[in-house]
Amino acid sequence: MSGIALPVLDDRVRWSIRVEDARSGEILAEHTPHVVCETASVGKVFLLIEVASRLASGALSPDQPVDIPDEHRVADSGLLYLMRDQRLGVADLALLVGAVSDNLATNALISLCGLGAVRAVATDLGYRDTTLLDYIRNERLEGMPWTPSHGTGAELSDLMRRLGAGDVISPDVSAQVLAWLGVDTDTSMVASAFLLDPLAHLDPEYQRVVLRHKTGTTEVTRVDVGHVSADAGAVAYAVCANWRGIDEDLRAPVLDAMAAIGESIRAYATGLPRDAGTVS
Predict the structure, then answer these.
(1) pTM of the entire structure?
(2) How far apart are CA 178 and CA 172, in angstroms?
(3) Are the beta carbons of 117 and 131 closer than 8 angstroms?
(4) Kindly report the CA angle at 39 between 26 and 212, in degrees rounded to 5?
(5) In this protein, which residues make up the domain named Beta-lactamase class A catalytic (predicted)?
């Protein structure tokens, strides 16, 4: 198989990109893959790894109810802050994090596991420039970490490749994390090119694509990291874009580039033209 050609990238944007064959590890495309970007909610993957590991060991029970400390109550991304009954079990909270990047569920699980333990996950996996740093905050004051998470394209694509191979902690832990990521409803970035049903793509969907991914969004950030497989191959990818310090909102050129990268990934994994849909 040939590599993947990246589109022209807006040079006003801080990019960190790597796309690799998830089976062989061959690098298919990259652009400044070791540049550190703020990654918004993508660091929540490390929280999910910690939770899955504790569930697998029996340290946590799936139905164990979790209290939400008042100091970590936040809104915005997610559903839990809108729900009348917010005292959910561990597994349901993790599902909300995977599905809608739920901020309140994230903070409840970080509090349960301990921020130090969650921060250590990335280091223990061998990553130097990628981690979850902090709780989700309504505002970042002086003395707080500058971002909830940061990372590089190289390390995040490696993480997704390892999850797909069952090499993160254990096959069971990797599979559980991927199951939570499989219900991610945000297909607005790289995943937009896969033409999947945003609300129902756990099983093979259009062109037999299977997607497991996590996105991150702020007013100056778009990040999509994932594992994509279909009949012709499998791909691990990370596309990180920041435009902090730029007066203009650059989401339009960033999302256009992400969709173009996604189209190349779709073609590689499926071996099919865009309009060659399958009917099951």
Answers:
(1) 0.96
(2) 10
(3) no
(4) 55
(5) 16-240
